[in-house]
Amino acid sequence: MAYDKKRPVKRLTVCLLGIGFAGTLVLGARADAMGLLEVYNAALQNDPAYQSAIHDNEAGRENRVLGRANLLPTVSADYSGSKNKAEQTQPDAYGNPFTTHPNYVSSQADLTLRQPIYSPDGVAKYHEGIAQADYSDAQFSGKQQDLVLRVVEAYCNALLAQEQLSLAVAQRDAFAEQRAVNDHMFALGEGTKTDMLETQAKLDLAEAQLIEARDNHTTYLQALEAMVGREVTQLDGLADGFQVKPLQPVSFDEWRTLALKNNPEIQAQRFVVEASQQEVYRNRAGHLPHVDFVASLSKEKADNIDYYTTDSMVRSAGIQVTVPIYSGGSVNASTRQASAGLLKAKSDLDDQINKTLLDLHKQHYAVMSGSAKIGALVKSVDSARLLVTATKQSIKGGVRVNVDLLNAEQQLYSAQRDLAQARYTYLIADLTLRSDAGMLTANDLRNVAAYFSKAQ
């Protein structure tokens, strides 16, 4: 199947329409809690970086028209008019000088059509304009996918900060409750001063962590609000029963093939190489002749003092050949400059390919290992909960002491935090992998949105 340069942009444009429809369906559920699709639709309308990309793409697409203009005819019109007062001396019938002072109005109107017939630099500019417009489309396709990633990442960061804040509150409350228990037992003569100091130290640390968690939560919410252009007070959280879906395709080589073909940044850099090549051709054309068909219509009235009572009209059509002979060495210099630019563009393409494949490998590994990591952390949370319960029973039996319970509770909160972070990291890695491969679609965003449930 032939490769269509416009296909990635068209595909993503259709996807965005699908996302917008899905987001509209979400809006009616709850007004106070924003879902992922709702956040995305708001970002489409309000994110400054994305709006800038839209206008940049609109400007870049005009390069196609500008390039084509070099091969199309140009029509120009000129008009000049002036009022003249002259002094004219000439011999009379007897040979004596005779002076007159004629006053007259002169004017000249020209209409000219010029059509390039042989224009090697114009052909190069035409192909360069196409490459520049395609570059702009590829860049915009990358910005569209980047918006999806930025929205999901900001959404997950805000949710993770919210979960960490909830855990910090729970941890602080647990330590505060434990301190109350220790104070009561000490008052009854059954506790120790050491238990009270240990619990107080943990409580003070939990208070500090709670303050930090509140600051982080506020910061990430504000970052999300800057993208959606409205206040965000509540977000849909992860639904119960989080399940990692099988990766398709599995092989990294298949993802590599997709990335080399569809990645927007690689595509854009290929168009830069093409535009640079046409720039070389355009500068080399400075040595070649230029042939135009020229047709004109000229109307003159009193063009000089000798014929100030005469009007004339001239129609002409013909071929104009321009042969460059010497331009001070600028053609050779500009050609060498363009050739250096072409080599730079090729090196930048290689660099972009290396960066893309490196990140592709990183995200592929993160997705492949994400399932095992999440499964292990789920077991870690379950084990930590059992440990807290068992430690409480052991303390009652005199086998464990206060510090053991504090450590067990700390282990539980850390495991819960790590599990939440691993889930969000997996979701972002999965989308980033598809973005690196140039395969991020509306279905991918909807699949991620399905992991979240409406806040109650």
Q: What would your notes on this structure say?
A:
This protein is α+β, with helices and mostly antiparallel strands. It has a single domain (7-72, 133-280, 340-453), classed as Outer membrane efflux proteins (OEP) (Up-down Bundle). 66% of the residues lie in helices and 14% in strands. The protein contains 10 helices and 8 strands. The strands form 3 sheets. It has a 4-stranded antiparallel beta sheet with strand order 1-4-6-7, with no helix packed on it. A two-stranded antiparallel ribbon has the order 2-3. A hairpin with a 5-residue loop joins strand 2 and strand 3. Helix 4 (120-187) packs antiparallel against helix 7. The radius of gyration is 38 Å and the shape is elongated. 30% of the residues are buried. Mean pLDDT is 87; it is low at 1-31.
